[in-house]
What we know:
By secondary structure, the protein is α+β, with helices and mostly antiparallel strands. It is built from 14 helices and 23 strands.
Amino acid sequence: MIPRYLIDVELDTLPVVEKDVIVIGAGIAGLFTAIRSSEQHSVLMITKKSLLDSNTRYAQGGIAAVISEDDSPAYHRQDTLIAGAGLCDDEAVDVLVHEGPKGVRSLIKMGTQFDLENGEFALTKEGAHSQRRILHANGDATGYEIVRALSETAMSTPGIEVWDDHFVIDLVTEDGVCCGAIVQKPSGERLFVRGKATILCSGGAGQLYRYTTNPEVATGDGVAMAYRAGAYIRDPEFIQFHPTSLCYPGAPRFLISEAVRGEGAVLRNIRGERFMHKYHEQLELAPRDVVARAIVSEMEETRSTFVYIDITHESAEMVKHRFPTIYQTCLTYGLDLTSDWIPVAPAMHYMMGGVKTDLNGETNIKRLFACGEVSSTGVHGANRLASNSLSEAIVYGRRIIKRIEELGPNDVQPKVVNKVVRSSVSMQAVVERRLKLQKVMVRYAGLRRNENGLRKGLEELKRQLPIFQATLTEREQYEFANLLTCALLTTEAALQREESRGAHYREDFPAKDDLVWRKHTILHHTQGITEERIEHV
Length: 537
């Protein structure tokens, strides 16, 4: 149904660019791996917009690592495993909690300036963390500070070439080995970039949903192209909805960070009543999926499109100092975080599943690596612990670089010829289809799911399959094909998993079923859906 390549291609006819390491995407994963790779290799970074357009840039809360003497890797491990609801990979979590502090030191070496208090790192606590272990920068602009520091380093590193506004259409493989990628230049010309190693750092798929905290560029390109190339996609049903995104006329779905609740904010329904005590003993600091569903329940009960987050009982000085970005953004829309209750609602935030990798970030396709949100390392399980994503990108980025150093030259000569009879598709049709796809996902594969809805959603999505027989030439068309691929994978996996666990909630199977479902969902281009049992206790 979904073809191996999105376009007609005869590899021999394309101009070839040779590089040691190809990094697809920006963000913390792309920038970090590019900088570290460039110490020994020639590196090409390809971004479809610019170095500053990524999910990392919008990360407010911070980066989780064991820094404090009161904390320990064992505590961090336990918190991660609890949040992951039985689906985390023990070894992957061990790697994260033990190597996280080293990763933070690497970021500091590259120029990231984390907030200090009395000469020590200013550590904060977030939902489902037992200790203060979140480092932040400029209060609530951690992601932006990391991207600033890493971008400046990358731009001034001679071994890194950056191609902005270039689109990677497909990965090129031969006999289970990745040889590089087919790339489209802003002019529309296509070329083949050959490499010793290819690293997917293309981020998530927030644009699957109408309401998301992700930027426009988050269209699941990496997951989709890896799937077409024969990589295993693991657990795509686990989509994290952030409970509190700004919900106000004329305003984007801006994130009101978890850290606001960590610093004492409470949630109220439109009647002004606190309600989290009805849903979880940890109240506002319960796991994200619990808080998000609680908010939806309150919205339904009070027939409202939002609830309020209220931090007005804390001092105005603390709020402005700790959350300058959130404070300023809300002010732009006439809302004062220090004196107003802020209207919020859940929005798609992060995908826990992705391209399956081993502990070195390598996929089942040799020489193809995945890092950051596009990957499924096994760290996040069924629900990511807040602020573990930035540390995961650094920790596994370091491991990918070590693995690439062990690789010899890539001698595989790919012979790709792909020709199909194709129809044409208008740009307007693609824009309309994208909106329709987002509505289908919100309605049938959102925060609460059931068999009837998922089947209906799958049916509607499959009506869009003719896009793969069309002649695609524009970025928006490729993006829609990639979103459709990810939507199908997410919906199929959600239909398969007949239980509720972490961020996946089935109204028709509201309980967690460890006996049958403590296993991963695996999707493959030719093998279809399979399962992977979890052997450890």
